[in-house]
Every structure is written in structure tokens, then in C-alpha cells.
Amino acid sequence: xxxxxxNGNRQESGVSGMxxxxxxxxxxxxxxxxxxxxxxxxxxxxxxxxxxxxxILADNPQIPIQDGINLAGYxxxxxxxxxxxxxxxxxxxxxxxxAFYANRPFAQAPGLGLNAFFAFTVVGTLGVSWxxxxxxxxxxxxxxxxxxxxxxRKYIIRLFPEPVKFAVGTGIxxxxxxxxxxxxxxxVADSATLVTLGPVASDPTAILSVLGLFLTxxxxxxxxxxxxxxxxxxxxxxxxxxxxxxxxxxxxxxPAMTGATYDISPVAGAFVSGLGAHGLTTxxxxxxxxxxxxxxxxxxxxxxxxxxxxxxxxxxxxNDEGNLPEVEKPLMADAIGTTVGGMLGTSTVxxxxxxxxxxxxGGRTGMTALVIGVLFLLSLVFVxxxxxxxxxxxxxxxxxxxxxxxxxxxxxxxxDITNTVPAGMTIxxxxxxxxxxxxxxxxxxxYPIVKLAAGKRDDIRxxxxxxxxxxxxxxxxxxxxxxxxxx
Length: 487
Prior knowledge:
487 residues, mainly alpha, two-stranded antiparallel sheet, 21 helices, globular
């Protein structure tokens, strides 16, 4: 119970009063109870990342080439558990920074899409060591901090073509979806058509994955908080049950279990050795490293900026010009989270669109973010369970989020061919080359060309030509064979 002031307004006392004063409950027309419920709601909607991020970042032992973080002397399950700890700490640090520094109800964690880019493109396709990939994350985070500190946001936004910015979300959605469907054996390789439909009526993994996927879609469409984590858990439990009752052979649907570990020393600080990698002394290596840093920054910056505006609109935070007041503060929280996450051993941290679920529940201040951060820390207790989740179950989240991200395509002005071309190239190239970076590059290269051809010189800036020229040079160096060797 709280006291009332002379105007009849309720005054909080004790700890609740301190929190009310610090976060400004009265100013934002909210209460402690509302903020706590909002925080719980947001956490439930995004808690799947604790399971999904490690399963993406850890090198898959079933794939011949290294496609993620591989630790000598540690099993796949131990690596997953280790990365789950890193994921939780990075999410907690970033979200608590959002709470106390920015006083906004936004949650942060390692972002889907960029973790896949880290593992499958940077480490898998480009052959870059995972230590150097972490170094690129740290460099991107520091760059983000510096540019945010000097207030360069509006100049950065003007530098990048609008149709490319709008297309990135859809391209990443397709990229995530194909990764998820492959892990679920719904999409498989084919010598004639490159990919085709998997044995969805005979393969136990594919059958269970499809059932789990549609269960998750059903829960998600009902707006049930935590629908994705519920779908992952239900699919996992069904896999263990199928083996227990003898419907399939042992080990068919469940991973081999080994002891989990909370020791993150093998990955924490690994970025330091990545910065000193021999490959960075070669021209090809420097080009590759620069493109990786650029891609991490591009997607992180615009994904965060777009999410802040979108969630801010839901909460009524935007001013008359449609901008989020003091946007530099949440951007700085994002940048700090990314830098700390890279130092600890995870890919880029970003603001989650799932924050909208908490805002819709009434979350208006950093108290909501404080609750989310505390819940992330409490989830450390469940880290051993992360290694028990099969990859096909965890990757259900990629397909669901990938499908949802396709909605971003409506923001593109498709009736203007000079927007259609760069946006279309961005969207198509990402999944077909298994690279977010290549998709962004294709869109940026095509933008000034079609604008110039259409006589729309006023839409082109010198920075557009500079970026396009840099990417043309990169593609030449990467694919011509003139230079050999990766980072």
C-alpha cells in the first residue's frame, strides 16, 4: 500500500517508491505491477534465444566443414551450454544498460540473422576463424559506440539507400527460414535443382519438425506469450518420448548428452587472438574483415533503429516528427551490448521486436527492461537444458521468425523500378548465396546504377557511389582469383 499526496495521487514507499522515482512511473503513467508484468511478457516471447543462439553459433559436428565455434577438448553439447551462458550474460548486460541508462522498456539479446551470418557465412563460407569473427563483432560494437557518442546517426541513415534498408529484414527472413528448414530435413540438397523437399512423410526428424512447426505457428497466431519456446519444448519432449517408447531408435531424435559447463573462459576474450590473426595482413583478408564489420554494423544499426521506432510507435513514445526522443541512449545500450557480447563470445546484440509485447502490456520505463534482465540472469539455472534440445527443435524458431520478417516487404515502394531493383537484389541474393553481406552489397551496387539510368540523379549521393565502388572491388578480389587466402 502507498500513501497519497495532497492531490490524491498514490505515493509508493520503500523499494517500490525508489523504483518509482528512479524510472519515473508517474511521469509515464505506469505502476510497478504493470512494469513487472510487461517485463515477464517480453521475456517469455524472446526467451527462445537462450536455446537458439547457442545451437546456431556452435559448430555442427554433422557438417564436414566448420560452420561455427569449435572448441578443442569440448563436446558439441558442452560448447552449446557454454554459449548459452554467454548469450544470457550478454542479453542481461545489454538489457540492464537499457534499463538504467536509457530508461526504455526495450529488451536486447544476440540477434537472429547476424548469428547465422556469423556461423554459416563468415566462418563456414568465407573460412574466417571464429576468433576473428568475434573480433569483427567487437570492432563493430566499438565503432557503433563512437558514432553514437558523436551523434552521427542522421548522417549514417542518409548514407545508405532506403530500398536496401527496407529490404534487409525480408532477406534475412528468407535466410533464416532456409537454415531452419534444412535443419528440420524439410529442405534437402538435390544435384539437379540444388534444393528440394525432404522426406517429410518418412523421416522421423522431418515429421516431428513439421508437427512442431505448425504447433508453434498455431500458438503464435493465438498471441500466446512464449509460443516459440513452448513449441520448441513440446517438440523436444516429443522426440525424447518417441525414443523412450521405442517408436524410433535411440539417438534418432535426441542429441548425445555430455556434461554441461558454466566455464566460458575458452570463448571469453578469444577476440584478442582474432585481432592478431595472420590473415589480416593480406589484402584479401583485410577486405573480408572490413566487409564482415560493415555487415554487422549495417544490420545491427538499422535493425535496432527500425525496432526502436516500431516499438516506440506502439508505446506512444514518438514525437510529432515520428522520431524517438533521445534515441542515442538506446542505441548506445545496443552498442555496449554488442561490444560486451563480442568480448564474451557471441555475435552481435540487437534490440528485439518482441519488446512490443511488453509495451502492449503497459511497459513504459526501464523497469520493464530491469525485469527482463533479471529474468535472463535467473535463467542461468536452466543452461544444462539448452544442450538437451535437438537442433531441429531449436531451429523451429528460425522458420517462425523468418516468416514473420517477410512482412517488412510492404515498406518497399515496388511501383518504382529504381527501388524494386536494389530491394529485389538484396532480398534474392541473401538466401541464394547464404550471405547477408552479399545481399546488402548487391543492393548497394545496383542502387546508383538504376537511379542514374532513370535520370534520378537527385537521389544519388557521393557516398552511394563510394560504397558501390568498394563492393565492386571486394567482389572482384573475392571471386577473380587474383588474390588467394582468407582471414
